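Name: Facilitated trehalose transporter Tret1-like isoform X1
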Amino acid sequence: MSANKRTYSPFVKQSFVTAAVCINIVCHGCVMGFPAILLPQLRQPGSPLAVPKSTESWIASVHSISMLLGYFLTPPIMERLGRKLAHYAVCIPFLVGWFMIVMAESVHVIIIGRILHGLSSGLLTTLRSVLIGEYTSPRNRGAFLTTISLAQAFGIFFVHLVGSLLSWRLTALVCAFFSYTSFIMTMFIPESPSWLVARGRFDECRAVFHWLRGDAEDDELEDMINTRIAYEKAIVRKRCSGSESSRINKIWHTMTKKEFYKPIILMIHGNILMQFAGGTTMSAYSTVIIGLLMGPGANAHFWMVFLDTQRIISNSVAVYVINRTKRRTMLFSTGALCVVSHLAIAAYVYARHEGIFVYDAIWLPALLINIQFFTVAVGMVPLPNVIAGEVFPLEHRSICGSISLMTGGSFMFVTLKTFPYLVDAGGLQGTYLLYAALLTYNLAVMWVLLPETRGKTLQQIEAEFRGRALRPEEAEARHSLHADPVEAYKSKLSLRRCSSAVL
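Structure predicted for Facilitated trehalose transporter Tret1-like isoform X1:
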């Protein structure tokens, strides 16, 4: 019987795990793009649900608040219950939220469903890179991680396409099948080898590792097990000796290091840059923006799907270009082009609104919005995440990554919540002019703080933020720290979780 049992290569098994994760990321993309098809249908005469204008921005933005809660909940769930159960925890709020929206008889139910979606999205944002990083081989990991941004872009494209053809209730029902499929696929995935080794279940770890990777990477397996054993022995020795340093002094000393606070300031501005570049607002308010820019006669749904298609293609191009171009060159060239596109759109809308410019052929606004979307897909969205994976010091990478995620979620809420009010107060031209000013300010700050990171080691990047190389006594202390089994194990764990910051 066993001779007839079909076996699959490690690559196929790793692809299956990645597919299970990416299907949920597609669902996250659907969550981001859903308001763009929901709100126009709710505004139509005869809609069964009456939505006040003040409530529309809550429908679009409320999920970004509950995402913050998801960021906090993921680490304890992952550590205590395991990666597999954590992925189940992602699927369930997604499913419940979609079905609540399908059966909603009031706007409040839709908002609750969106809150549940945000909770799942927050859980997934932290979990996705951990899952792909721990289940896949280093040889394939980079390729698998690039699917994260593509899956999210496809989710936005999919919900916009389906929502242009079906009602919002049917669209929500279709979107629910992504998380349902991911839930079923997760049943056939074993627990993560990294979590098993952390629980001292070494035999299970070996069996799962060989199932995922085959026998060609046993060195990594044995290194992982031996490091964990050394870590546990060192913990016992520290407890017996009672050696504990003052946590308050250690935290204060860490916060005053340039290599700690400079990358955090840099990435706060990088996250602001990412949110105000236009990708976030276009995902949720694309029909509004297209209507204001191209005029009421334009087919907003066609251009929405067209721009989503362009974003997928541009994201694919970005994977190739970013790996071959200096980070500063890529960021500031696409950033400058993004500012110019915002200013050009603001000028075009203002001139047409004031009657200064009467030429209203659709190719001109279409060109401007496509340029903006190109800069978003190639530079403004992927580059801050790539840079975040390079500038944070290894010793503090976990806390720096958490702060970066928190600021990203906070500014996503600010962007989505304020956009309708800004358009009402100053029109699309005033809103885009404000965004151009914010982009210019954040690019200026990043110009000052961002070193060139491409081709440099983490130690070299850290030294650039510090402004000098390590002194001999600091280097000796760093060597002693890394020689400590406890700190060495924590550093490896932090690197595995945070080095793959990709959207």
